[in-house]
């Protein structure tokens, strides 16, 4: 298994030399500066690849192995195969990536909002901070700040009462903060930042699009792009929904094993693969993570390893330490290792320690939310320890 690290580019707080110090060897990155929907040029991809892979004297080499992500424009999610120009542009970006010999592309298909949290620095018992999704704060935003049309029907009377109490206790600063977190697009997001009125407008554009229709649009997208990926030796890996359930009245279609099975049945190309994220899938108690890894082993090319802890209401959760929370990481890694041992070196899975607590010196620094250096390095070291115990020397 190959040790990856998500790097947000030359402006990121974590440098490539600091990545080397964590033990990671494979970079997960993207052209975050390119607007969503604009074609990536081969020259742009080659420039970023050169920056990553040109190794200074005496330094350990790094390889750009995963693009996370080429964003899928909103029009594709709303219109499917009818969004022809947007899909053609996406294929052109894929071709630029393939021309630079980057073999894995991660993407997601979450409409309007990408991965969603209500707090970025929730203080835990150690004094470190974690990201959190609080169901009551989310409902307070949905019902009283966003004031989404039809939202009240989706909540029980008890939920509505708690949401109102939470909202009425919020200061103006807290209202501004949760609005910023939910609407401004978190790091690595493949959706555009929005204002509250813009958010409402986006939601209105999805009227009549249920889970079946959204899945149809994803299948139409995959039918168009997987031949290009397969011909060029690129594996496409769909990231799960985060959290893995509908938000803001929108369907989500990559939340369970059955969701993935439906997509693999519809588009059986070997290029149609999975980004196996234990944190996203682990939020749902009904997702059996080792069983999912075993069932889709041949489809897994890229892995996010992190753990979440479900809270008392079953809907709220926070990011836990990598070997804690609700994920049996040892059982998961046993399944992944069993598959990886069947592969040659070039097709081994790339894994990265995803997210991480803000801790130690990072508490006093500017960090990318969800991606502090020290918390992720701790997680990578713990994961590496499990792999060594399983008889695997990660590369």
Automatic annotation (TrEMBL):
Domain of life: Bacteria
Pathway where it operates: Carbohydrate metabolism; pentose and glucuronate interconversion
Keyword entries, A-Z: Iron, Lyase, Manganese
Catalytic activity, EC: 4.2.1.8
Catalytic activity: D-mannonate = 2-dehydro-3-deoxy-D-gluconate + H2O
Gene3D superfamilies in the cross-refs: Divalent-metal-dependent TIM barrel enzymes
Cofactor field: Fe(2+); Mn(2+)
Family matches, as HAMAP family: UxuA (MF_00106)
Protein name, per record: Mannonate dehydratase
Organism placement in taxonomy: Bacteria, Pseudomonadati, Pseudomonadota, Alphaproteobacteria, Hyphomicrobiales
């Amino acid at each position: 298994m190959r040790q990856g690290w998500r790097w947000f580019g030359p402006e990121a707080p974590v440098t490539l030399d600091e990545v080397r110090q964590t033990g990671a060897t494979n970079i997960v990155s993207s052209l975050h500066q390119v607007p969503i929907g604009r074609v990536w040029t081969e020259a742009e991809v080659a420039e970023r690849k050169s920056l990553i892979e040109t190794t200074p004297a005496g330094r350990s080499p790094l390889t750009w192995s995963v693009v996370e992500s080429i964003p899928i424009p909103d029009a594709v999610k709303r219109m499917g195969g009818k969004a022809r120009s947007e899909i053609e542009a996406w294929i052109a970006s894929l071709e630029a990536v393939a021309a630079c010999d980057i073999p894995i592309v991660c993407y997601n298909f979450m409409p309007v909002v990408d991965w969603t949290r209500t707090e970025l620095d929730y203080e835990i018992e150690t004094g470190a901070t974690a990201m959190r999704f609080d169901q009551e704060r989310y409902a307070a935003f949905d019902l009283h700040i966003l004031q989404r049309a039809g939202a009240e029907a989706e909540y029980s009377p008890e939920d509505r009462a708690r949401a109102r109490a939470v909202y009425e206790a919020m200061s103006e600063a807290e209202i501004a903060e949760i609005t910023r977190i939910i609407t401004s697009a978190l790091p690595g997001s493949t959706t555009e930042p929005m204002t509250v009125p813009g958010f409402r407008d986006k939601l209105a554009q999805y009227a009549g699009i249920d889970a079946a229709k959204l899945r149809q649009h994803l299948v139409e997208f995959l039918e168009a792009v997987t031949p290009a990926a397969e011909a060029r030796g690129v594996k496409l890996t769909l990231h799960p929904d985060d959290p893995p359930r509908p938000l803001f009245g929108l369907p989500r279609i990559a939340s369970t094993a059955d969701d993935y099975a439906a997509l693999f049945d519809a588009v059986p190309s070997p290029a149609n693969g999975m980004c196996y994220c234990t944190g996203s899938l682990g939020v749902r108690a009904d997702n059996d993570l080792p069983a999912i890894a075993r069932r889709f082993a041949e489809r897994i090319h890229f892995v996010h390893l992190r753990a979440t802890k479900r809270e008392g209401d079953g809907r709220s959760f926070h990011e836990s330490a990598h070997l804690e929370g609700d994920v049996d990481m040892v059982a998961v890694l046993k399944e992944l290792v069993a598959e990886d041992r069947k592969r040659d070196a070039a097709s081994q899975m790339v894994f990265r320690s995803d997210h991480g607590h803000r801790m130690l010196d990072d508490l006093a620094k500017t960090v990318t939310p969800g991606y502090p250096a020290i918390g992720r390095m701790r997680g990578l070291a713990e994961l590496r320890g499990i792999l060594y115990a399983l008889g695997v020397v990660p590369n």
